[in-house]
Structures are given as C-alpha cells and as structure tokens.
Request: fold
Amino acid sequence: MADFVTAAALIFCVAATATHLVSVALALSRVMSSRTRPRGLSVEPVSIVRPVCGLDHFDEMTLRSTFELADGTYEVIFCAAREDDPAVPFVRKLIAKYPHIDAMLLIGDDRPTSNPKLNNIVKGWAAARYPWIVLADNNVLMPENYLGDLFRSFEPGVGLVCSPPVGSHPIGFWAGLECAFLNTYQARWQSAADTIGLGFAQGKSMLWRRDILDEAGGVEALGAEIAEDAAATKIVRAHGLRVRLVDRPFKQPLGPRSVKQVWARQVRWARLRRVTFPVFYAPEILSGSMLPIASGFAAASSIGLDPLTVLAGLIAVWYGAEALLASVAGWHLKWQSPIAWMLRDALLPLLWVEGWAGDTFVWRGNDMSVAKADAANSSRELAVTSKSM
Reply:
C-alpha cells in the first residue's frame, strides 16, 4: 500500500509540474509571437462602448487612454446609469478636452436584465453606428494599438476577441497578491487554453461583430447567464465560431487593494465559474503548486532523495517559470512577487471550496446571487434532456 501511495504521489507531482511548465510555455509563445506578427493591418471603423460607475483609482489614466488610440476610425460611447454618478463630470471633461474624437455620454437606467453592467451598456449598443463594437470596462488601460491588437486576432472562424485583465500599477502587498492571481495564474491559464483552441470570453474587453450578437438578441442576450462572458462564449460557439484572446492581454491598473477586496473578487469569479462552466471549474483544485510540491516532498525519501532538496527544486521550477513569464511579458514583477505567488497557491484550495460553498456576492454595491443562474442552467439541461427522450 505504501508503494502505491508513493507512486501515486510521484506521478501526480510530475504530471502537475509538467502541466504547469507547458502552460507557461504556451503563454510565453503567445507573448513572444506578438512581437513578430504583422502590425498595421486593416482596422475597421468601430464603436467603443465603455460603462462607467463611480470612480476608480486610475480612471484618469484608463478613460483618457480611450481618446489616444492610434489605429483606425472609431467613436466612443460612455454609459452611466445616473446623472449624479461621480464619473459623469469627469467623462464630460475628457470629451471636452478631446473635441477631435467622436465621443458622447449617455445616461439612463433601463433594466432589461438582472446584470447592472449590461443594463448600463444597452443604450450604448443601440446608439453605436458601426458594425464592429468594442465593449470595454472603465478600468481597462488601452494602449495606442489597442484596436489593432483586437482585430489582429479576429481571424476566419472567430466570432469574438477578448482580453483577460493583467494587473498593473499595484500599490501595496495586497494589490501585488491580486497581480499574482490575475497575471501568472489566470492570464497564463487563459492564454494557454486559447492557444490549444479552448478560448473563453472575458468581459473586460470584447470586440464583437455586431450582427453575431444582434442575431442572438443583442446585449440583453448576454443576461442569459449571471456572467456575461460565459453567455458570450456560449453564443459564439452556438454560431459554430471560436472565441480568441489577444496575444498580449491589456492591463488593468489596480492601485491600492485590501485583502478583503482581493478575496471578494476572487470568490465572486470562482462562484461564477462554478455555475457557468462546472466541468472546467471542478479540476481547479489541482491547479496550484501546493499539492504537487507537498506530494513530491512526501515521496522523496521513499525513492532515496533528500526531501529538502526536492522541495527547493520544485519551488525553484514552479516559481522560476512564473518569473520568466512575468519578465518576458512585462507584467508586474518585484522581489515580493514569489511571496505573493506562494500565498496565492496556498489560498487556491480554500478559494475552490468557497466557490462551491456559497451563491452570493456583491458587485459595485449590488447584491447578486449565482443561485438563480444555477437553477436556470438546470432548467435548460432538463429541457434538453426531455426533448431528447
């Protein structure tokens, strides 16, 4: 029995470590290929719809970047639910500062869905003039070639191009921990999955061909799921098309973060993933370094190796690979980063349990629940099963 346990521990350690290294290699290949892919490709006229709600730490930087894009013809449509939103006067100042950019601010509180963000952008989608539309959150920092990068990934057979957020400009250790979650963990896995053809939508930046979403029912159709990116993925796949990610994900400046804010965001995303794609969420318990490293450490003496040497070697391999990816990609990397990565991995099993354990979360002051989405998904599955019987 002891030999079986040792063998299982070694196999798991080797398999998990190899998978980690492959995911890093795939993400690295995407980042590095972006340097050789041709630029200056045709960028279609596009409408950029940006919802605003309150003011974040780096809004001046992120919202101003919308007016400083170098590629193509575009219009900018900001959307706010209320006239008294703190972002409204700030957006109006930006519009006045860049009169050469076709920009407007729409205010209205229509509620066709249970998703406050979607409700905010419905009016922007309706007002958009162009057949290509970008939906971009207010905290996305747009580089000059933002539109070119999106269109470059819109290849034949693609129905939607997105970008996961990459944390930048962290202030304090807890913001660095959020970078550890966003960058060399989540963005790495998403880029790796996209490289092998398993791309999933991310709601931070979405480049839509308007007719695809309109055929499904418009922006309101994204409210069919508790997470609009999950709904977007399913809509695109229903058209026989693929979701793709940009080669170099766009940055989200973080500023200061508390541990409570970081944990609440990760729990919210975990519960959304659990409800919308449970088959992919279930194995996340195996994705961090703690279980593989512990398995290798426990089995080392049984095969004649020094446990401490094995422990040090596994730590160096796992986090050295992450450091290489962060360095090449230009993502946040400081001397504290390995500490944040190890803390993140220690928290992943607890986060996975939290994803299963509850249904509620708070998003920008709105109390929301994944329970309704879970029930709706079950009803849809039951309906499909009934039709097939």
Remarks:
- Residues 2-33 form the longest helix (32 residues).
